[in-house]
Amino acid sequence: VSTVRGFNKEFSDSDKILDLFANSVASSQATIEKLQVSFARVAPLAEQSNVSLEETTAILSRLYDIGLSGSRAGTVVVNTLTKLNDFTVGSQKALQKAGLSVFDVSLQYNTLEESLSRIALAIKKGRLEADQLQKIFGTRGKLITTITDKISSGIDSAANSSDALDDIQKKYRDLVLEIADSAGAVENFFSAQEETTQMAIDRMNNSMKRLQVTIGESVQDAYIPFANVITDITNGMSDLADKSDFFSTLLGTLSVGGALLGKFTDVMFRLQGVFVAFSVLGPQVIGVLSKLGI
Asked: Which residue in 12, 61, 85, 273 is a FRET match for 287, CA 20 to 30 A apart?
């Protein structure tokens, strides 16, 4: 909900936001908890700085990948956006030393893509060093070099500046697209969970059939209840998967936050079925083993 409000999104955008977050979780070290904590800090300033939800999510995702918590990643982004909106005398001198000006990197005149790309190029060409970066971004903010290093990776430092800048900006857009190209991510995530659970149950069922052949008719009486339990669990889980049209129902009745919680609760409910299966199977296993004299 706070993300929707912070970026002036409509609740009709909730499915896109959920897909975006699901893709972030699937393709980085992001978690829903980290994203929630980060966006509580970042959203208002990002919106004010004309930084999109997709850009913000992509940058946070890369910061999680280097081990930052939701709180710290959010602080790094807030610090970066603040420093690119408000320049001190020291930061202006550091920029000038690198051949840049406030007008080249300020978010009042540039997009975040343009600003970070110019800074990345200056770093790549050796014009902007660690001490100058610290004067611009401060001690915490220098972690934004995680992004600038990534988008300038593979760029020839001796290349024409204009061409190099174009290449860096393209890499920035690709970085964002890795997270933003997320249509259907939520449905794909839950489908994978269902398939994985069903496959595990099928393997258990097949294993028990092979066990019947292996141990012979002498323990058939012990095996049959066991096999029936497996079959019942399999059928029950299949019915659960078939009847769980939770995605459209929750989005229609709950807020974004409630929908997201509902989805993950549903996944945990489904996975819980596996653990219930094992608890139910326990007595049956003991029966089989007893027949075998083990």
From this structure: 273
